[in-house]
Amino acid sequence: MSEARLAVPPRQKNPSPLLVVDDQVVDRRVICHHAERLSGLPVIGCGGGREALEEIARHRPSAVLTDMSMPDMDGLELIEILRERYPGLPVIVLTAHGSEELAARALRVGAASYVPKRLLNSELGEALRTVLKLARASRTLDLLLTHLERWEKHFLIPNDPTLLPPLVDHLTRDLDAAGGCDGTGRLQVGIALQEALSNALYHGNLEVSSDLRQEGNEERFHELARERAGCWPFASRRIEVEAKVDRTRAWYSIRDEGPGFDVSRLNRPPDPEDLLRVGGRGLMLIRAFMDEVRYNECGNAVTMVKHLAGPSGRGQPEDFVPGQGAMVEAEVGEPAAERSVRA
């Protein structure tokens, strides 16, 4: 992955800083160094959750990067407070080895993404790029969309990774118009869409294995993707994206034209160990952030549903438990409420 600095929008002459929260001095300095180098933004370091809340009140940051285990206030408590006080402020969880299960819980309560500390150099830049871009977009929504009641969209896009962020931005804008999803929820849906689209592009249409990234061959991963994007049979493949949003739910279908994969291996509860696998982290994020996740039989199409409260406070079944990301086998293309699910 390229380590180029993130471009700060020209209009931001005094950009908001990043806030790093870690009680370990050495870890905090290392994280601050990487964050500043990869983002191009000023960085403020804090030794704990309470100090972080004071800094946020004084300097509203662009994003918060926090450790999970701290003496005065653990990461989970900090994330819950930030979601209540500062909806839409993205939080990236930084995990040490052995804290994967705690990180998985953090994603469910409101974190926008996570990066294992041992992968800071290779993964932090991408996480910051995605989170900051979506967070900025969420603050510049067109108020006219709030008057829409329901809408459907259908895209057929080529294997061009530069089209994915604007597509995610376009799709997630609908959530604010629908209501029932706060800034953090909108950001999480955006992350899930980005991960699903990336899977469809790289692992589906271009058939590039995540093992290359797991082994540290990031450059070879993207080089192979570029090569295949221009040759047969990969070049002719497209990603079909459907979105259906109303006041009670957001329904998304993403289908690639690749060979698919064995979906039977997904019929297990989320494993915190997935946080350490490059190929498993995307799926972990999708399942943590979406309320329903379904693959078709051959594994080249996924349906994701996010339940919305809507203006009347309705929209979720009485027995619904948010953030569980149920994984079942079903035909993609049918809205979840209009078909029977084949377990």
What does this entry look like structurally?
Keywords: Phosphoprotein. This is Response regulator. The chain is α/β, with parallel strands linked by helices and about 350 residues long. It folds into two domains: about 20-135, 3-Layer(aba) Sandwich (Rossmann fold); about 145-340, Histidine kinase-like ATPase, C-terminal domain (Heat Shock Protein 90, 2-Layer Sandwich), CATH 3.30.565. Helix content is about 40%, strand content about 15%. It is built from ten helices and eleven strands. The protein has a six-stranded mixed sheet, with helices on one face. The chain has a five-stranded parallel sheet with strand order 2-1-3-4-5, with helices on both faces. Helix 3 links the parallel strand 3 (about 65) and strand 4. Helix 1 packs across helix 5. The longest helix is centred in the middle third of the chain and has 23 residues, at about 185-205.
Helix content: 25-40%
* Relative strand content: 15-25%
**Low-confidence residue ranges:** 1-5, 7-11, 311-343
For the termini, the CA-CA separation is 39 Å
CATH level-3 fold name of the largest domain: Heat Shock Protein 90
Count every helix, treating DSSP H or I runs of 4 or more residues as helices. 10
Tally of strands:
11
> How would the global form be characterised?
globular
Brief overview:
The chain is α/β, with parallel strands linked by helices and 343 residues long.
Brief descriptors of the model:
alpha/beta; 2 domains; six-stranded mixed beta sheet; five-stranded parallel beta sheet; disordered N terminus; disordered C terminus
